[in-house]
TrEMBL record:
One Pfam family from the record: ODR4-like
Protein family according to the UniProt entry: Belongs to the ODR-4 family.
One of the protein's GO biological processes: intracellular protein localization
Subcellular location: Membrane
Name of the protein: Blast:Protein odr-4 homolog
Key words, A-Z: Membrane, Transmembrane, Transmembrane helix
Organism field: Drosophila guanche (Fruit fly)
Length: 486
């Protein structure tokens, strides 16, 4: 039986939600440590209906009053902000009264939310590299009798609830941070022969092709291939043992081999993990595409267009020592795929026209990833690395956008100064300038750039237009008087 591990801070948060709002609901963000234990990383109350419920504090709300659409919307938005090692794993309810009698309603709520999630995921490809999750947690807290009920929900045939153990633990959770800078560089053919091409469909093809490639990728930790069967704790112990041996070898450097040992120790320290740091550097290597296909499948074909993707995806995940290396590698792959999919979704949501002619050169600048840590009052005490979530900003957008999103979706207050904005740099403007020049030189080719406009440029053009209009007006008045005098 799976056990849900919560901290004392989680218990205080449930109590606060029940006291201040009498009835609250929201999402549970968790981490699967192993087959038997799941850590609760964060509880986030849904505040979408706060404005409608301001005058209903004395009304006895219940699970039947929960909006499945509002809950699913929060679920999807939070999933985009989670690192690859975390997921939204369920729903919680905190009430001043006992809600245990509404388990049938809770089951229907889960079913409705799951159906909405399925439709959303089908509309924009597969979100993870693993099999879709089907088991979720339901947590109900009653302020009246301080009672907690925890159930495991399984989708299918209307859904079923089964018993699930839970435990509030005093010992802080310990997190190991892994980082990776993934260099995305690929060219895909556009097989659509229509004159007007749907941009969203082409981006969908990017996700499908990338998922297929990353599933067969190799993940290196600290530039080494590590066995999938061992857990992260064993790997760390081996690394520390290697560090101690290198320390002993480098203390008395008398031979060239000892000198090499000293250089190796320096290299290990420079990689970011040894010497007390909690960061493990990872790298993802994709195989050559020709290796994925049979010789008979390789053909030379002509296409009406191509789709090029270029850039760097910054990856940052947080794992438990209980995680196997196979889990760690899967989390890293998931984080890269999740980040790419989220950028494309956010970008396509802002398109005014999703079609472009096949003669055009269409240049896109998706948003970049920024990171933020949950504030102390919104998370539990933890050892090791500090847990971070992420958001995506277009060129010109301010950190206050992240603050608003974190408040609405994760129910946390952020200081804009604490948001890490430099994890990914802005693309070089010369890329767009060169493409514009190439397009101007091509016959019957129209260049289309779809990037966030610079506010300074827009204001300058606006003021220039006013100045020209005033000049024309003054010239007309002067000409009128001159003709009148004559």
């Amino acid at each position: 039986m799976r056990t849900l591990l919560l901290s004392k801070a989680d218990e205080l948060y449930l109590e606060k939600c029940a006291q201040e709002h009498r009835f609250s609901y929201g999402i549970i963000i968790g981490h699967q440590a192993d087959l038997s234990k799941t850590f609760v990383v964060h509880l986030a109350r849904n505040n979408e209906e706060d404005a409608d419920l301001e005058d209903l504090t004395e009304v006895g709300l219940s699970i039947s009053d929960i909006s499945s659409q509002a809950l699913a919307s929060q679920w999807l938005s939070a999933s985009k902000m989670c690192p690859g090692s975390f997921d939204v794993i369920g729903i919680f309810v905190a009430s001043a009264t006992d809600q245990n009698t509404e388990m049938k309603t809770a089951k229907k709520l889960f079913s409705d939310v799951y159906d909405i999630l399925l439709k959303s995921n089908k509309s924009f490809g597969i979100y993870t590299t693993d099999v879709a999750q089907s088991d979720y947690a339901f947590l109900s807290y009653s302020l009246a009798n301080k009672q907690v009920v925890c159930k495991s929900y399984t989708y299918g045939n209307g859904g079923t609830f089964s018993d699930m153990e839970f435990k509030f633990v005093e010992k802080p959770f310990e997190w190991i941070r892994l980082e990776c800078e993934y260099d995305l560089e690929d060219i895909l053919p556009i097989v659509n022969t229509a004159r007007r091409v749907n941009i969203e469909e082409q981006f969908q093809n990017i996700i499908v092709a990338f998922r297929k490639n990353i599933l067969v990728s190799e993940v290196f930790l600290q530039n080494e291939i590590v066995e999938d069967t061992i857990d992260l704790q064993t790997y760390i112990k081996k690394r520390k043992s290697k560090e101690e041996k290198l320390k002993a070898s480098s203390s008395n450097v008398t031979t060239p081999s000892d000198s090499c040992a000293s250089d190796s120790l320096h290299l290990l320290r420079s990689q970011g993990y040894l010497g007390g740091s909690a960061i493990i550097r990872a790298s993802i290597v994709l195989p050559v595409k020709c290796q994925l296909a049979k010789p008979s499948d390789i053909k030379v074909r002509e296409f009406n267009g191509t789709l090029r993707t270029s850039g760097i995806i910054s990856t940052r995940i947080f794992c438990s020592q209980r995680n196997s290396i196979a889990d760690v590698k899967r989390f890293l792959r998931d984080d890269v795929l999740r980040s790419l999919t989220t950028r494309i979704q956010v970008y396509c949501d802002g398109l005014t026209d999703s079609y472009v002619t096949n003669e055009a050169i269409f240049i896109s600048e998706p948003p970049r990833r920024v990171f933020f840590s949950l504030p102390a009052e919104g998370t539990k005490t933890s050892k090791g690395a500090t847990v971070q979530f992420s958001e995506y900003l277009f060129r010109g957008e301010a950190p206050t956008v992240v603050v608003a999103q974190a408040k609405q979706i994760l129910d946390v207050e952020l200081d804009p100064e604490t948001i890490l904005m430099d994890a990914e740099g802005l693309p070089d403007d010369t890329n767009f300038t060169n493409s514009q020049t190439d397009a101007d030189e091509a016959d019957e080719t129209r260049s289309m750039t779809n990037t966030m406009p610079k506010p300074e440029l827009s204001r300058s053009l606006y003021m220039l237009g006013i100045a020209v209009a005033l000049l024309v007006l003054l010239s007309s008045v002067a000409l009128h008087y001159m003709l009148t005098d004559k």
